[in-house]
Specification:
The protein has eight helices and no strands. It is an all-alpha fold.
Length: 162
């Protein structure tokens, strides 16, 4: 969806309130990395997402593709939105957005496979792995990967796994 499309102002974000993500996405496109903070805050809230979250994802993936550096926020926010979309408590993906959303996920999978070998930090590597897990329908695995290493270690210690 074009960033000038009037539908942006009609979409709801993670707080179940109208949120026009186009301004933050335009700032991100111009290199303002502080826009990530707003996108995280508005597109997701305690496992709640809305149509604005789904609509923002194709643009986030497009911006990531044209960027020359791996950005963990792209993968982590995409994984968070998708896991939330699938949890049964959020609005369905609108029909008018399905083609673009699915295409963005297909593109994100390609980017993830390209970037994983060079992922230089844990946040990027874990987020990429979570996206790849989701593309294979492995929601629980994606959720575990998105935990911090300390949280994963606690699960292992508590349940005697591994």
């Amino acid at each position: 969806m074009d960033l000038n499309d009037k539908r942006w102002s009609l979409l709801q974000g993670g707080y179940r309130a109208p949120y026009d993500a186009s301004a933050a996405l335009q700032r991100l496109a111009s290199g303002d990395m502080t826009a990530w903070e707003e996108l995280w805050e508005e597109l997701h809230h305690q496992s709640d997402v809305g149509e604005a979250s789904y609509a923002a994802l194709p643009e986030i993936v497009r911006l990531h593709k044209v960027s020359s550096k791996g950005e963990w926020n792209t993968y982590a926010l995409a994984a968070t939105i998708e896991r939330s979309r699938l949890n049964g408590r959020n609005p369905p993906l609108p029909d008018w957005l399905k083609r673009d959303y699915d295409a963005a996920w297909a593109e994100l999978q390609k980017l993830a496979l390209q970037e994983l070998p060079q992922a230089a930090n844990d946040a990027l590597a874990d987020s990429i792995i979570a996206v790849l897990a989701l593309t294979k329908g492995r929601r629980t695995l994606a959720g575990l990967v998105m935990l911090t290493e300390d949280e994963r270690q606690e699960i292992v210690s508590t349940y005697g796994v591994l």
